[in-house]
Design a protein that fits this description.
This protein is an alpha+beta fold. It has a domain of 113 residues: 2-Layer Sandwich (Beta Polymerase, domain 2). 50% of the residues lie in helices and 9% in strands. It contains 20 helices and 11 strands. The strands form 3 sheets. The protein has a 7-stranded mixed sheet with strand order 3-4-5-2-1-8-9. β4 and β5 form a beta hairpin. α12 packs across α15, α12 crosses α17 and α14 packs antiparallel against α15.
Length: 409
């Protein structure tokens, strides 16, 4: 029995990056031998075991062959006869197909170290094209390592294009797709993930609503970059530079979907795109079974982001409606995330990345003014039920009028 570290642990050590996840492959062992040593089996599809003391994963060396559609359409074969090289060849990229033993002796049959040095993301074998999930994975690695200068090999991009055109991407489950999308959006360069998907034709298959934004012009006065798709990439980039959470990054990706529906004769204006885009945001949310907090923020940002930009011009009554829509009294964090998304939208414009965004503090101040209206005096005056709600609304409106007058004086 021989044990090797494989995949990301080897790749990141060679890149001089922190090693977070360690995967191990076991060559020359049977399931029975693993169980006899106290390893605990996990996973129904192929033999993976947890170490009896550390809880780390150990997988038996295995081969695989295509047996159906999608990510799960594979038959696995594990046996003591399966070699390390046979196990590594089934992996996606050469930089993930290296192994090392405890003495750090490297096994690199597919030249992953060479591709690391050349900063190339290259597939290991033609079998790459059998697994549609690899399109998303490669785009995610491109987003992770873009800052180090990594690019996708032309021949790998060709295979990704073939996969995108084959219809195989439609066989991916919502859960698997979202797992890759959400991880990619949290990488250092999430805009690269979207760009690579677009370059290989996958964006059109997975998120046609986002793909439709490219080539759609906006008024140059507000958007020096003009192209709505490029603006979306810039907003995503800003969300990463400012270390925003997944909820904000997801909202940034979808906030302008309505502009993809504007008739060409109305370009470059996009009247009411905030409302026309809501059905598209809902569709994307449902397609990937997106978590509720991401869904809700994306819809709210889509509907109200222009309110955020015009915050200082809004009437006190409109400001109150905005605050009520976010339920700022019970869910203050969601409003903070809305403000963040609006600021990323404002900064995601060519040449305006460093421009200040006074609307952020103004909106925070408005929320504070509304929250500080006390309920107790109204109860003491005898208000209750619906009447109490109306009285509270009147007092909050009064507070916002006073706040607006003082803040804009």
């Amino acid at each position: 029995m021989q044990v090797y570290k494989v995949g990301g642990a080897v790749r990141d050590r060679l890149l001089g990056l922190p090693v977070t996840d360690v995967d191990r492959v076991v060559v020359g062992a049977t399931t029975e031998e693993m169980l006899a040593q106290g390893f605990r089996p996990v996973g129904a599809d192929f033999p993976v075991f947890l170490h009896p003391k550390t809880g780390e994963e150990y997988a038996l060396a295995r081969t695989e062959r295509k047996s159906g559609r999608g990510y799960g359409g594979f038959t696995f074969y594990a046996s003591p006869e399966v070699t390390l090289e046979e196990d590594l060849i089934r992996r996606d990229l050469t930089i993930n197909a290296m192994a090392e033993d405890d003495q750090l002796n490297l096994t690199d049959p597919y030249h992953g170290q060479r591709d690391l040095e050349a900063r190339i993301l290259r597939h290991v074998s033609p079998a790459f094209a059998e697994d549609p999930l690899r399109v998303l994975r490669v785009a995610r690695f491109a987003a992770r390592y873009a800052g180090l200068g990594f690019t996708v090999a032309d021949e790998t991009m060709d295979l990704m294009r073939q996969l995108s055109e084959s219809g195989e991407l439609q066989a991916l489950t919502a859960e698997r797709s979202w797992k890759e999308i959400s991880r990619a959006l949290m990488e250092d360069h999430p805009q690269v993930f979207i760009q690579v998907l677009r370059d290989c034709g996958a964006l059109k298959e997975l998120m046609p609503e986002v793909d439709a934004l490219f080539g759609v012009p906006q008024p140059e006065t507000h958007h020096p970059e003009i192209d709505t798709g490029l603006h979306t990439l810039s907003v995503l980039e800003q969300s990463s530079l400012h270390k925003q959470p997944l909820t904000v990054r997801w909202a940034c990706l979808l906030h302008d979907l309505g502009k993809g529906l504007t008739p060409e004769e109305e370009w470059p204006r996009h009247i009411a795109h905030e409302y026309t885009g809501l059905k598209l945001i809902k569709a994307v949310n449902e397609r990937f079974k997106v978590p509720k907090d991401c869904q809700e923020l994306a819809l709210l940002v889509g509907q109200y982001h222009t309110h955020g930009h015009r915050a200082l011009e809004l009437k006190a009554s409109t400001l109150l409606e905005l605050l009520q829509s976010f339920d700022i009294y019970r869910r203050p964090q969601r409003f903070e995330e809305f403000i963040a998304a609006c600021e990323m939208d404002a900064r995601g414009r060519k040449g305006l990345e460093q421009r200040s965004y006074p609307q952020a503090d103004y909106l925070r101040g408005a929320a504070k003014a509304a929250r500080e209206v006390a309920v107790q005096p109204l109860l003491e005056q005898g208000f209750k039920g619906p009447e109490l709600g109306e009285a509270l609304k009147r007092e909050r409106l009064k507070a916002l009028k006073a706040y607006k007058e003082a803040a804009t004086a």
